[in-house]
Amino acid sequence: MSSREKGARCITRGVTITCDIQSGATSFTVQPTTYKAKAYSAASEESPLASTTIARRDPTERDVQIEILFCGICHSDLHSVRNEWSEFMATNYPIVPGHEIVGRVTTVGSAVTKYKAGDLVAVGCMVDSDRSCPNCKRDLEQFCPNMTLTFNSLDKHLGGVTYGGYSESIVVDEHFVLRLPSNLNIAGVAPLLCAGITTYSPMRHWGVGKGKKVGVVGLGGLGHMAVKFGRAFGAHVAVFTTSPNKKEDAFRLGADEVVVTRNSDEMKKHAGSFDFIIDTVSANHDINAYINLLGVDGNLTLVGAPAEPLDVPAFSLIMGRRRLAGSAIGGIAETQEMLDFCGKHNVTADVEVIPIQKVNEAYERLLKSDVKYRFSIDMASLKSE
Ligand SMILES: [Zn+2]
Ligand SMILES: [Zn+2]
Questions:
Q1: What CATH number does residue 182 fall under?
Q2: Which of 50, 67, 90, 163 is close enough to 96 for a disulfide, judged by CB 3.0 to 4.6 Å?
Q3: How far apart are CA 9 and CA 370, in angstroms?
Q4: Hey, is 291 helix, strand or coil?
Q5: How much distance in Å is there from the Cα of 272 to the middle of ligand 2?
Q6: What is the pLDDT of residue 127?
Q7: Model-level pTM greater than 0.90?
Q8: How far is the CA of 145 from the centre of ligand 1 (A)?
Q9: What spacing in Å lies between the alpha carbon of 323 and ligand 1's midpoint?
């Protein structure tokens, strides 16, 4: 600091430091400097996503600056853009969604040790947490009360809200940056950062593996990943579906059997036989039908969130010591473990790659489940905006 006069400013490593002398004491306020990045944002809940420019902070000491190559489209992008979760997570506009991010490191801060320019990296649903609460200490940052989501969360650096991956670049603390295996198609890796970890985490937690019978309810973005992971873990995988025409695809993805749920005889055949069922459906449905398929100590984990409360008779759980559980994404260490596992077992999402200019159309198709099984935006398309 060359001057300590009131209001003196100096710019160092992307940080503006303002010094004030007040009643004899010196105080410092730190304001990061910023740069402009191209992005797609929605201005209100009725607006389509459109080209814009946003401010990103210049990388500070522990930051990694990433050129975004692909960003998956998650259903929560659409919910947030349209403010459909206003009761518990109101959307701040403009919103830049996207939390299935893969890219290449362009710059790192002076204290960054894990990454260097040129590395292939990923960012998922979180970009920060307090690192000090009991959940963070157990590598469960996803349950940190002070966790910062990748978009629509309070931005601790700049004020305002965080902006997600529908952008040409992002700046993230290195603790929340993940390393990509080098052997995978990166367009198909992007959805692993939300759909992948959301299904991997509970399957690992509840011991899915060889000799276990695993059920997957719903064959969409999440469900198709659950089938792939179940298979890779060596379990026997059954897919439950309402539409018989999904059978062929379920087998292609790795299912050992497909149960058409409308056929009550088929459902009865499986009563009391499953070790673990993952329910990915967010529309209202009868989960009791699936609880009854669990064996002793069987577990039904919800990763989809129906709007209406669920109707669960206690006896369905009492008889058989069954568990009804929930799960949300995974911690940073576990997400890295998942990416490494995917590299080893050659697991990626099935994606349809689109340019950013087709994102509004993709949202409409998402509502009709008209995608196999995830859209991945090629962010090179943003350069022409
Ligand atoms: Zn997501
Ligand atoms: Zn914490």
A1: 3.90.180.10
A2: 163
A3: 54
A4: helix
A5: 38
A6: 98
A7: yes
A8: 19
A9: 25
